[in-house]
Amino acid sequence: MDTFTVGASPIEHTILGACPHDCPDTCALVTTVRAGRAIRVQGNAAHPQTGGVLCTKVSRYLERVYHPERLLQPLRRGGPKGAGRFEPVSWERALDDIAERLRAIAARDPQAILPYSYAGTMGLVQGESMAARFFHRLGASRLDRTICSAAGAAGLEYTLGGKVGMPVEHFAHSRLILIWGSNSIGSNLHFWRIAQQAKRAGARLVCIDPRRTETAEKCHAHIALLPGTDAALAYALMHECIVHGWVDEDYVQRHTLGWEALRARALQWPPQRAAAVCGVPAAHIEALARDIGTCVQQRAPVAIRLNYGMQRVRGGANAVRAVACLPAVIGAWRHRGGGLLLSSSGWYPVQRDVLQRPDLLQRSPCPQPRIINMSTIGDDLLRPSSPAFGPAIEALIVYNSNPVAVAPQSGQVVRGFARDDLFTVVLEQFATDTADYADYVLPATTQLEHWDIHLSYGHTDVLLNRPAIAPLGQARPNTWVFRELARRLGFDEPCFADDDETLCRQAFGEAVDFETLLQQGYAPLPLPDAPFARGGFPTPSGKCEFASPRLAVLGLDPLPAVLPNHEPAGADARYPLAMISPPARHFLNSTFVNVTSLRDAEGEPQLEMHPDDASARGIADGDWVEVFNERGRHRMRARLNGRARPGVVVGLGIWWRKFSADGTNVNELTSQALTDLGRAPTFYDCAVQVRRCTAAPAVQG
Ligand SMILES: Nc1nc2c(c(=O)[nH]1)N[C@H]1C(S)=C(S)[C@@H](COP(=O)(O)OP(=O)(O)OC[C@H]3O[C@@H](n4cnc5c(=O)[nH]c(N)nc54)[C@H](O)[C@@H]3O)O[C@H]1N2
Ligand SMILES: Nc1nc2c(c(=O)[nH]1)N[C@H]1C(S)=C(S)[C@@H](COP(=O)(O)OP(=O)(O)OC[C@H]3O[C@@H](n4cnc5c(=O)[nH]c(N)nc54)[C@H](O)[C@@H]3O)O[C@H]1N2
Ligand code: SF4
Ligand SMILES: [Mo]
After folding, report:
1. Do 209 and 87 sit in the same domain of this protein?
2. Whose CA, among 18, 253, 501, 698, lies 20 to 30 Å from 688?
3. Closest C-alpha residue for ligand 2 atom 45
4. Mean pLDDT on 159-179
């Protein structure tokens, strides 16, 4: 038997695991198995971060694992691309044929082959371990995995030196918590539990979000700024700290770089000026500054839970830089419960080179392959060969991702995937919008069926996931598929024989005790209480870099810049409404959209509008509306539910195209324009117009 038994009948046993999903909480799971079938998935009560609680989505994980539409055998295309018509084929046939196709393309130029993957599972093993080894040895194009967090990562890197911040549990000791660009209740539930603890102990919670989310409703104050205006707000808060004497001069002198320059720029941002940019009353900004000042005077900890929602705009990285300066300005890092957390993933000593073996590139025919940005896949699939671009993309291997639904400007993405001369392989659990365009669909295991090991970007524990049940049908882990392809292509390096448990052990090597993981499922990293109380930031200077010498060397603004959106909305604009498309609570990106109970909870694709914007267009609650711009159009049901502010519309994501009224989703509207730093997409920098339409067209697909 695999682990301990929790007082159940002898024919039942429990297995410790980890939630695989792209969520900061990385919960510890306990799966109960009876006679080879998983009968319960629960949160591990022994794991402090999980506290025995799972979100609604993963509480229903068994509906996903045993879903009647799980892909359980390899499939070969039997109709036009996109039609989703397939015929069953054996693994042998599928793998032999795929290997043959890849070999032929690689003989001309392996860079014509592109892996496309993201965080369908966050596991280090079923993510980029065997797959990365395979593509490195092949010399395939490399993928720049920018779609979620690259702008924020760059902002943190140039300011704090990496994806590091406060230990999340210390928010319980904060007196003032800014929940900034984050809907904790919807997408970071276990942080919300900690924020509640702080609130019960007297902390004040302030939410900074254009949308009146369920989180904003439950905070003491809500600043509903316009999308893409966070840097202006951050500067106005610094302005107030300077003029009211709330700067921690000692901390600033000792542990920061570029204060004089930052101070001069902040003084250009009085609350009135920021208020005009952010579209909020100056009094709201002044009140928040006073909250901060009160804590500074009482030497009470101020903490910022920054999240990725505010960096999906043109100035996203600079906005993160501006916000990340604040805790150093007021000396918040001195205190346990003070500072900032955007991502904690930089704390982990992951042995990526051991897992991914970039050295294998040297053994490939193309030791320095080009890099393709996953966020411009729409354009890149349609690019012909050229000296600047290199070879046209001829083969695409997709795993852990659903680009046809999630990548920006999906009209263009669909045109790319529909290319008849493109050879596409999709490793999937379900027939997603992307799988519909595949030449081969290979059935993938779920988290209950394979080994994996996890870091977290919202806490600082390592989690191990053991398989609880045998793979369903002919489903196989991603690692198995790449091992088999490696063998067929004659890659005989010993690393291609590593099994999944070995890969789990390699992920952290000696840095994490594997026996502890086997026994309790998780192991906390040893971290100091207030990591930057005495400076020691992982930047080149060891200081919090207000002005970044590295940016100056690149010829860029060394200070955080206030940048307008690519697509400014507003009454005078051709497309006057700013559309944001943050996650729906019952979906995880495009995962779970096909689980009926969760889809029912979300209803149908909806566009939240402010009553003023709706009535100006003759739109009433529940009407069908068409959202459009020059890139495309998408039909949704208008919702006047009090969540949208004037000038902003909200289309919660990410629906599968085939479950919507017109076979599209919000990404039909979004653009492939990139952020200031990090080459990330700008999903929330998207101007649209909205009109009432009489009825939904017939459901497609
Ligand atoms: N239930 C659920 N949970 C999830 C996900 C999911 O799809 N569903 N997705 C997961 C993933 S991949 C990620 S990256 C995280 C994402 O979670 P977060 O990092 O929290 O980011 P978002 O959910 O994109 O946006 C959070 C909030 O930012 C707001 N926002 C939009 N534009 C701006 C802006 O310009 N400024 C400010 N201040 N706020 C803005 C949105 O209205 C939204 O309420 O959540 C993860 N958790
Ligand atoms: N408009 C708009 N678009 C967005 C966003 C937004 O806020 N608004 N958010 C963006 C963000 S933050 C992100 S992170 C991306 C997310 O984009 P993706 O990482 O593509 O996430 P998902 O849509 O959840 O698709 C993951 C797929 O992986 C599959 N999968 C899960 N586990 C496994 C496995 O073990 N093996 C294999 N082979 N497959 C597996 C799932 O079935 C699922 O179909 O979307 C981005 N797109
Ligand atoms: S999706 Fe997030 S909150 Fe839900 S179980 Fe997974 S890690 Fe926990
Ligand atoms: Mo994400």
Report:
1. no
2. 698
3. 406
4. 98
